[in-house]
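Need the bound structure for iron/sulfur cluster, inputs here:
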Amino acid sequence: MKYSDEFRDKTIAQRLARAIDAEVSSQRAYRFMEFCGGHTHAISRYGLEDLLPANVRMIHGPGCPVCVLPASRIDMAIRLVDRPEVTLCVYGDLMRAPGSQGRSLLRAKALGADIRMVYSTLDAIRLAEQSPGRQTVFFAIGFETTTPPTAVMIRIAENMRLKGLSVFCNHVLTPSAMHSILEDPKIRNTGGGPIDGFIGPAHVSTIIGTQAYEPLAEQFEKPIVIAGFEPLDVMQAILMLVRQVNQDRYEVENQYSRAVTREGNRRAKNWMSQVFELREQFEWRGLGFVPNSGLKLNRAYERFDAETRFALHDMPVADNPACECYAILRGAKRPVECKLFGTVCTPQTPVGACMVSSEGACAAYWTYGRVR
Ligand code: SF4
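Answer from helper R.:
Posting the output first, comments after.
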């Protein structure tokens, strides 16, 4: 496949593996976190860890939007669809995301709630247009990649005077989460030693640009390499991180220069800033409450905010204690260290969000047969 195959070339992958092997020092360990679930899947799918020297370890980060969404937010959505006038529009992965006490949107739908799976924000607009007597709520979720389409949807709804459309906003921000990981010594030193550097997300960085990570690299003296999702992208990013560590550098480097610029997408960032503002705190599964890490609609667009319109309140709840998603999303454990992995918990019978989501680390390990 053009534009993909050239980034999956076996000979080049082996050459990169030899280059990494030649450059790592046997006197130290290298521990790199890939923030994004897309990279976790590439690493598992192509067996990239098997190409790395034993002292280079990849730690899986929290960059999967469904995985980090806490159960309380699913509970809020379920309370929302208890209202007979509400139609809730959600992306497919969210249907099975766990709320508290075994609840999910799929179960709510089976019990009669009006929940529709959509592929884009435009589907929600269409539905709202076709159902003027109902309250259509879009369950907005995701990092900076999916936030601009939500902003555009709200602007369209405003222009079309769609009074029945609103947004249940769960958008979260990557740099704030990375800041929280680096700031908290319990997470920063998770799983037996400090994190030496990050592979930064691909799609998110097309929007926010590499400059968004510069304060983090500077403040915490950690190298960050933005990388694409193909196996050669990841291998090259690891080589770039190894070089920075060996040379005592902590810069933001851009491996994914075919799509990412320093500035990012100015138009998309403008849309976001016109419609959203920061929440003081937002809860992440795995990271807990992270300051300035979530978005809500700003005062000018508050009338489209489902939390305001329906007086919804967040009530934190505990996760299933048998599920290790909390530790996995902090990089403290690997999926195979969970007692339920592959026995009680599989993609057909998922217990936790990391198995529910197609981007989750547990789903990646199961799908690609990783055993360590
Ligand atoms: Fe949770 Fe299942 Fe992953 Fe265990 S295997 S951490 S139960 S999602």
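Comments: The two ends are 31 Å apart (CA to CA). The CA atoms of residues 96 and 107 lie 8 Å apart.
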